[in-house]
Amino acid sequence: MNIRQVPNYRLYREKTGESGDFWLHSETLPLRSRLHNWEISLHRHPALLQVFLVTAGEGELLGEAGTRPFRAPAALYIAPGATHGFRFSRDADGLVLTVLADRLPAVRAADPAIAAFLAGVRAAPLDAEARPDGPLVADLARRIHEELHGNAPGRDILLDAMVTELLLRLGRLGARAAGPAGQEAGRERDRQRIGALGELIAAHCREHRPVGFYAERLGVSAAHLNRIARRETGASVQELAARHLLRAARRDLVFTPSPIQAIAYSLGFQDPAYFNRFFKRATGMTPGAFRRTERKKLAG
Asked: SMART domains in the record, alphabetically (predicted)?
């Protein structure tokens, strides 16, 4: 999609120009994602920034630099005007905070490293390695959601302070992961490689290629590619490829009439029995049982 054709929205399909005086909005992640079949096409919010707290599931963050996989627990940050989109797994859960960017100018002026992190589209793992700020980011997002939907005295002042703290801690988390300023260029290249890796996996995962195949095309060693994949996404290259296959398998099982054997072959499995074992190991269910369960849910 040409950058000039990327639509501008307030909140997904709410086009710029609609009325509504607000500076902060919070909702559960599935609320809109489910309506769009868990895929949000490329768009942008010129005057808004967003923070996604992903507490369950996984997915892909789409941007101009490519596709970046993520897995819960994670925080996704979208800078004002940044082109972005999402693919979420059907079990994804969490919160989405949308903030009028002009409300908090002090955040961008707080520190150059924090400002650099908050100037783009970011995915930050909130696992044990993200301490101490990771758990605080998750807790703050939940508290903001609860406070916003309440009516306690001093709510707006407290929300202003909590949102400021959330963004600063998220920026600090990203700045700490980036290391000294001299390393930032290298980290940005690695982030771009992860975006390119996501596109390569989407194109070739059905071929069941080894890590070296992807590493060669990205101009790095297999060990380095695995290292940056784990750092940026929390998963190895093979795990990312397996996740992509699993998402494709789930989609085909639910939304196509193809026999399970045909789906297995279309996903590059030479023997449907291998596909059955792969799917059951990942989900705890056979492909047939998964298909019946999900179609029953859709039927109401």
From this structure: HTH_ARAC
